[in-house]
């Protein structure tokens, strides 16, 4: 049986005094355990939407409601959310381990529990052997993998990822996607954006396509392909958003 985890209702976002809203009446629902992919051209509003869903930004209008067991206050809810930003969010002059210890200390985890969690996560993404190296010496793929595990230290129930595999080689991409699959099998709900459409086709249960701040499609990929008589996600996006450059 499906269980609603998140309900987004009539969300608008306008930055500063801009005349054009970046989000223009967004409504959708996420069920527990889903993997939702948010797609759309550059500037469509994906990052803005994800930032609002994980409480980094406030909507100008509208509501985002979570249905989490036992967690009621905004602070309790935030403690169950994890966010992997597109831009790296660590200190390059610290080692991987120092970064993880610092970010872990923000979640009030017991020292022994945190140490164990750090080692487990470093192992999972193949960074254990370089845990005492400064992050500034890491390759792009190593930095992306570290950026991911920083957001997993507190075992979030819902994980938001903004382009988690951008700019990485195929090996790092597989390591990242395997870890995300493993987390989802363990019950983590995942909401993510990506421009890697082949990867997303295999990964997502639900597709949310946005353009100019509005949802223009929201369904399973199979249903959308059938409905719009296209063969894949790329064809779907081109059919629904056109070929005009957005910059
Ligand atoms: N901090 C900001 N101040 C003003 N305008 C912003 C800000 N952040 C985003 N915008 C504008 O809001 C709109 C949506 O941007 P957003 O970054 O959410 O799109 P996106 O779909 O994530 O794009 P991309 O695929 O390029 O990452 C764009 O027109 C962008 O210029």
From TrEMBL:
<keyword id="KW-0547">Nucleotide-binding</keyword>
<dbReference type="Pfam" id="PF00005">
    <property type="entry name" value="ABC_tran"/>
</dbReference>
<keyword id="KW-0067">ATP-binding</keyword>
<dbReference type="InterPro" id="IPR027417">
    <property type="entry name" value="P-loop_NTPase"/>
</dbReference>
<dbReference type="InterPro" id="IPR017871">
    <property type="entry name" value="ABC_transporter-like_CS"/>
</dbReference>
<dbReference type="InterPro" id="IPR003593">
    <property type="entry name" value="AAA+_ATPase"/>
</dbReference>
<dbReference type="InterPro" id="IPR003439">
    <property type="entry name" value="ABC_transporter-like_ATP-bd"/>
</dbReference>
<protein>
    <submittedName>
        <fullName>ABC transporter ATP-binding protein</fullName>
    </submittedName>
</protein>
<dbReference type="GO" id="GO:0016887">
    <property type="term" value="F:ATP hydrolysis activity"/>
</dbReference>
<dbReference type="GO" id="GO:0005524">
    <property type="term" value="F:ATP binding"/>
</dbReference>
<feature type="domain" description="ABC transporter">
    <location>
        <begin position="6"/>
        <end position="237"/>
    </location>
</feature>
